[in-house]
């Protein structure tokens, strides 16, 4: 009789351990997969140099970004997402500088821009005749995805890497968005 009680107790312990193992294993698997399904979004301005010089892989797309955050810049915001699998990646820095500096930058970038848009987002711009994808306003103070009409979006380069029938399915673009009235500039680059 004692032996059957020991067998029952051992079975209960084994089943309990097995159940606990399955529950904790599924928890850790879910945690591992859920953390990799969402790309990391970095908004910490202290990491700007790291992103600018190490994390963004194509230096050609960011060569016009400030080497470091200018000491006179105000209201600095960044948004960096490295992307994941088929998801695109983007990098933006928004800052406020003196009206004279912004006017000089506006003149400089207008002269070399391939495309110019007033306000809007990448969806608006890509759907215009001969339009190209640009960016969303990731560094906005509001949840709005579009740039207000006070911003001039200047595309410095856009590369279509799609296939026939799937124009702009893959590609990249970069440029600046400048708000002359608030003395703000947004440097941006996107890959998808």
Label the overall shape: elongated
SSE arrangement, N to C: HHEEHEHEEE
Return Rg in Å: 25 Å
Strand order of the largest sheet: 1-2-6-5-4-3
Mean pLDDT across the residues is 87
Q: For the report, how would you describe the main beta sheet?
A: 6 strands, antiparallel
pLDDT under 50 segments (min length 5)?
27-36
Q: How would you sum up this structure, described in words?
A:
- This protein has 192 residues and is an alpha+beta fold.
- It folds into two domains: 1-37; 45-191, no CATH class.
- Helix content is 33%, strand content 28%.
- The chain contains four helices and six strands; from the N terminus they run ααββαβαβββ.
- It has helices spanning 2-37, 48-55, 99-112, 122-126, and strands at 74-81, 89-96, 115-120, 147-160, 171-179, 184-191.
- The chain has a six-stranded antiparallel beta sheet.
- A hairpin with a 7-residue loop joins strand 1 and strand 2.
- Residues 27-36 have low confidence and may be disordered.
């Amino acid at each position: 009789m004692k032996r059957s009680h020991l067998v029952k107790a051992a079975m209960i312990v084994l089943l309990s351990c097995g159940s606990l193992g399955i529950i904790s294993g599924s928890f850790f698997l879910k945690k591992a997969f859920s953390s990799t399904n969402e790309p990391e979004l970095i908004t910490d301005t202290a990491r700007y140099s790291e992103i600018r010089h190490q994390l963004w892989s194509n230096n050609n797309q960011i060569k016009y970004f400030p080497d470091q955050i200018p000491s006179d810049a105000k209201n600095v915001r960044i948004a960096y997402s490295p992307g994941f699998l088929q998801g695109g990646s983007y990098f933006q820095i928004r800052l406020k500088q003196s009206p004279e500096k912004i006017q000089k930058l506006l003149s400089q970038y207008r002269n070399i821009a391939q495309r110019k848009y007033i306000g809007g987002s990448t969806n608006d711009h890509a759907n215009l005749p001969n339009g190209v994808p640009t960016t969303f306003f990731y560094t906005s103070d509001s949840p709005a995805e579009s740039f207000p009409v006070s911003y001039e979006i200047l595309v410095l380069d856009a590369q279509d890497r799609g296939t026939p029938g799937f124009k702009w399915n893959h590609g990249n673009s970069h440029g600046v968005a400048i708000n002359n009235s608030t003395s703000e500039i947004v440097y941006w680059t996107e890959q998808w």
